[in-house]
């Protein structure tokens, strides 16, 4: 193995770490907005998302830790090659690749959880549309039914005021 072999991972690891950091910042902003009440979603939807957001946050933390570990072990591999310790360098490079693979698997898991959170939002959008009734003030009021498909939208009743008695 030459010195350039572990060096090939540096560009990949740096880009992956950038992607992980962006996901972390977006998730942190979402959580801060939810805490400030600016999420724009119903409190029920926010509450349902909490376990998913916590899990995603922990996954991103582990993804980043494994990415940094991969970067560090890859650097150690290059240093060992510099010292002509080829056997240990190859072991270190294998560990670096393994850390990167586990990090990528965690990334896939986090994306799947993100999709579940979006499904909750879609459910929240579907529910009011299928069970909304228009109240006397023209504002939407949610119908309390057990079956979303069975509920229908009640048209708004408009009062016609005539000038004649």
Structural class: mainly alpha
Biggest sheet overview: 2 strands, antiparallel
How helical, in percent, are the residues? Answer: over 70%
Radius of gyration: 27 Å
Shape descriptor reads: elongated
- Please count the beta strands (DSSP E, at least 2 residues each): 2
Mean pLDDT: 77
Detail the poorly predicted runs: 137-165
What's a quick, concise take on this entry?
This protein has 165 residues and is mainly α. It has helices at residues 4-36, 43-82, 86-130; strands spanning 132-134, 140-142. 72% of the residues lie in helices and 4% in strands.
Polypeptide structure, described:
With 165 residues, the chain is mostly helical. It has one domain (4-131). The chain has helices at 4-36, 43-82, 86-130; strands at 132-134, 140-142. α1 (4-36) packs antiparallel against α2 (43-82), α1 runs parallel beside α3 and α2 packs antiparallel against α3. The protein is elongated and about 65 Å long.
Key terms:
elongated, 72% helix, 165 residues, 2 strands, two-stranded antiparallel ribbon, mainly alpha
Layout: helices, strands, pairs:
Blueprint: H1 4-36, H2 43-82, H3 86-130, E1 132-134, E2 140-142
């Amino acid at each position: 193995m030459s010195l350039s072999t572990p060096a090939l991972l540096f560009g990949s690891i740096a880009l992956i770490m950038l992607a992980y950091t962006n996901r972390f910042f977006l998730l942190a902003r979402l959580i801060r907005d939810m805490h400030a009440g600016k999420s724009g979603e119903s409190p029920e939807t926010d509450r349902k998302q909490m376990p998913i957001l916590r899990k995603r946050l922990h996954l991103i933390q582990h993804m980043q830790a494994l990415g940094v570990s991969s970067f560090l072990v890859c650097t150690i591999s290059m240093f060992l090659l510099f010292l002509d310790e080829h056997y240990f360098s190859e072991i270190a490079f294998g560990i670096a690749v393994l850390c990167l693979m586990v990090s990528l698997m965690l990334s896939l898991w986090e994306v799947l959880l993100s999709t579940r959170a979006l499904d909750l939002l879609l459910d929240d959008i579907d529910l009011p549309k299928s069970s909304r009734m228009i109240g006397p003030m023209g504002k939407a009021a949610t119908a309390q039914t057990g079956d979303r498909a069975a509920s229908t939208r009640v048209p708004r009743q408009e009062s016609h005021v005539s000038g004649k008695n």
